[in-house]
Amino acid sequence: VEPVITPVRRIPHVLQSKVKKELRLMENAKIIERVDEPTDWVNQMVVVVKKDGSLRICLDPRNLNKAVKRAHHPFPTLDEISAKLSGAKWFCKLDAQSGFWMLPLDKRSSRLCTFQTPWGRYAFLRLPFGLNSAPEIFHRVISRTFEDFENIMTFQDDILLWGNTKEQLGTGLEKVLARAKSMGIKFNPNKCIFFSKEVD
């Protein structure tokens, strides 16, 4: 596949200051960095306005995705999930906060994830939203992180724990949170569900 350099996508005037601020925050957090040298690939930036009014900066790598070799890590099926949860009475669901951004990119991959803005080019230093293999890569890493735990299942950026008793679930939750902390995995408290009698 021939590398593609896409033109900058225009940003509505009303969003420009918010987008600049978000780019600055991402740069300070070492999620992206400015790029001055020539790169073979230049993708477009996508700005997603979330329900709470905050922004998510994503990559539009539709051309790059044609050149990416997929990771092909299997996701559990609904039948597999149902079978594992049979008999469980208590549940917790943990949502990894900006999960993809926990995974650093090597220099070559980072430069493939260069994107154009009205204020210059940036490259992702961490796994970006939009890349077709990102969910599989992240799921593989999370699955392996917790593969030695019982009564746990990972699906993309969610971790589901269960137990027959509240105490059993609490013990498992403590272990998962300790492992997550040691690996630098953070959870979004607004999307987590603790000690529920049902799960969706």
TrEMBL record:
InterPro entries: DNA/RNA_pol_sf (IPR043502), Retrovirus_Pol_polyprotein (IPR050951), Rev_trsase/Diguanyl_cyclase (IPR043128), RT_dom (IPR000477). It comes from the Eukaryota. Pfam families: RVT_1. Residues 29-200 form the Reverse transcriptase domain. One of its GO terms (biological process) is DNA biosynthetic process. This is Reverse transcriptase domain-containing protein.
